[in-house]
Amino acid sequence: MSFLSAIAVISLLVMFPVLLSLRKTGVPGIASFSAACVLTTLAASVAMAESIEPVWFHTILEGILAVAAGLLMLRGFQQFLGRKPLDAWPVAIVLASVTTALLFFSYVTDDDAARISVGAGVLSLICFLTGATILRNWPRERAIGPYMLFCCVMAFLVAGLDAFRVATVMAGLDAVGDILDPPIWTTAYLVARLLITPLFFLGIILMLHGWMIASLRHMIAHDDLTGALSRRAFMTTFERMSSTAAVSGRQTAFMLLDLDRFKQINDLHGHAGGDTALVHFTHIVRETLAGRGILGRLGGEEFGIALAGTGRLDVTEIAEAICTAVRTTPARANTGTEISLTVSIGIAMVSPGGSLADAMVQADVALYEAKALGRDRLSIAGSLHAASVASARALAGAAAQMRATVGPAQPLSNTG
After folding, report:
1. How many CA atoms lie within 13 A of 24 on its CB side?
2. How high is the mean pLDDT of the chain?
3. Cα 81 from chain centroid?
4. DSSP β-bridge partners for residue 332
5. Looking at the domain assignment, is residue 408 inside a domain?
6. What is the CATH number of the domain that holds 110?
7. 155 shares a domain with 283
8. Residue range 255-300, pLDDT digits in tens
9. Quick one: 119 and 143 in the same domain?
């Protein structure tokens, strides 16, 4: 099995630079995983050189390195899963106890079976706790779910193999072959013991890469200031929601929200105050929605909300609740100054098979009406006021284009 042992060590040596390259990415627990890989590689290397040094030396050193690596592995998963990691003092106590026990069974009582049982038994317990930690704190990200499951299975397999080794030694059997018959099962057991740890670290690397990819996707799909969906992600989700609702013949509602007098907020409180207002506004809207729709930042102080399978009356109630919540809950700048906020909302309903682009234009017209009628209110596309305001807006736009084409008026000259 020396060939397989060499493969295991080489595999661990290859994985260490990969783990080390992830240290600057901010992945939780990466430092602990990297250190665990180093110690595991050293433990496997010591086990390979047992013919050169005394057997007890390898048992002590390999046991201490393996237990330390297991503790770092457990700490890494605790950090990755957002749990409180092991403190330094319990780690020191476990390592000191294992070292003392190994030294005792080497110098005071020369008991090779006890030395193996101490190292493998403690490592089995640590790996079991690692698997239980993964299983208990299953991540919400679906992208890394399979990798987490793989790591969980590997942790329990390592725990089971080490527990089996302890049971074999405690039973007084000299070799695993005394239990496993035919010899093919013995070979399978030894191969599993040698290769299970590299597979465990492979699962960790895949898990960390999956986490990075999921984080990048989240960053792309969300506005970095407010946490709302980006415009592209919002439109993609909006189209998917509308298509799903259309299959069952339901409407989709679209709300266009615009913070009132946002330029004045920036002028009065600075851009930092404006950012605070946007973050606070997003938080209030998200709480008021309570998961009933999606919220996206379409640009500047303009936001969009999409709700599937919601009628006109329900949408109106939600919009009124948002206006009230924003009006009655001012933001607070870093200086402690309150920033009063109001929002104007334009609403459009998308019928099954309707155009989302048309709905957004209608919501924009309704928003313009809400602004024209005094702000801090909602307006529904298709109302009488919306039609009149839309006409006024079109005339104003046409007049502006004519003025731009003709150019500035020339003064009359007195020619006598």
Report:
1. 2
2. 83
3. 10
4. 338
5. no
6. 1.20.1070
7. no
8. 999 999 999 998 888 889 999 999 999 999 999 998 889 999 998 8
9. yes
CATH of residue 334: 3.30.70.270
Residues 319 and 384 placed together within one structural domain of the fold: yes
Q: Is residue 405 part of a domain?
A: no
User: Could you give the CA distance from residue 76 to residue 83 in angstroms, rounded to a whole number?
Assistant: 10
Lowest mean pLDDT among 19-33, 61-75, 145-159, 395-409: 395-409
Q: Which residues pair with 299 in a beta bridge?
A: 302
Residues 123 and 242 in one domain: no
Q: In 309-404, where do the E strands start and end? A: 331-332, 338-339, 343-350, 378-380
Of all residues in the chain, the percent with pLDDT exceeding 70 is 83
401 by Cβ neighbours in 10 Å (0-12 / 13-18 / 19+) ranks as exposed
Q: Are residues 365 and 278 in the same domain?
A: yes
332-366: b (≥16 Cβ within 10 Å) or e: ebeeeeebebebbbbbbbbeeebebeebbebbbbb
pLDDT at 74: 95
By CB atoms closer than 10 A (0-12, 13-18, 19+), residue 309 is middle
Same domain, residue pair 127 and 266? no
Q: Tell me which residue of 12, 118, 126, 124 sits closest to 78, measured CA to CA.
A: 126
pLDDT, tens digit (0-9, with 9 covering 90-100), for 70-122: 999 999 999 999 888 888 888 899 999 999 998 888 888 878 788 888 888 99
Pairing verdict, β 331-332 and 338-339:
antiparallel
Residue-level pLDDT at 340: 92
Q: How many CB atoms lie within 10 A of CB 76?
A: 26
Q: In the predicted model, is pLDDT for residue 139 greater than 80?
A: no
| Domain co-membership, 177 together with 313 | no
- Structural domain includes residue 345: yes
Residue 160 covered by a domain: yes
Domain residue limits at 264 = 231-390
Residues 315 and 253 sit within 8 Å (Cβ to Cβ): yes
Could you tell me which residue, 177 or 52, shows the higher pLDDT? 52
Same domain, 205 and 238: no
Number of domains in the chain: 2
- Beta bridge partners, 253, equal 307, 349
Residue 71 in contact with residue 56, Cβ under 8 Å? no
Q: Is the peptide bond before 182 cis (omega within 30 degrees of 0)?
A: yes
* pLDDT of 220 higher than 80: yes
